[in-house]
Task: structure prediction
Amino acid sequence: MSRPSRLLCFALVTSALLAAVPVAVRAGTDNAPPVTVPAANDKAGDTTATDTQGPVIEPEMVRANVRVGSVVVSLREQRAFVYSRSRRLITSLPVSTGLFDSTPTGSFRVFSKSAQAFYTPAPNERMKWMVRFTKGRGGDNIGFHGIPYKVTAAGDVPFHTPVGQSPSSHGCIRMRVRDARWLFENIEVGTPVRVVRSRGN
Result:
């Protein structure tokens, strides 16, 4: 067999072997921007009290690490629309806002960030990746954060949160933990945040 024939044969065998090797894709870890590949049995309404990531609503865009230019939160849609500094839509994220209209509407700016925070009236209720942008009716901070959890002797217990479906908070904007971390890492103090009842308004 000639040398070119041997090289061609080697290339064909190698490509066949590589095609047979299964590839595992890790999606939505807290160490990288999420890429969700929904399984065939995923249901839009699936959410449990122990699901800290929230339900899988729909496939997400691949999100690179970028500087966030602004965020618009739609109370009706229960989504946060994240824009670049050039006003290009980067992604939209499912959220859960405040019960009984407790999430203030209007235009605000991010004024502080904390990787770990707690609910002042109940310090054993905590949340990660807090991005504060305004104050609530009682003067408490309002912002984006991961699904909160209660610290107990048996371990951390996440709050049931219907992310992307309905309000559930005291006024803050709850997000899946991986989404909250991505936003925390890519948004700066001073970034505009607008909360609207509907994007058409």
Residues 3-20 form the longest helix (18 residues). The radius of gyration is 21 Å. Residues 68-196 form a domain with the L,D-transpeptidase catalytic domain-like fold (CATH 2.40.440.10).
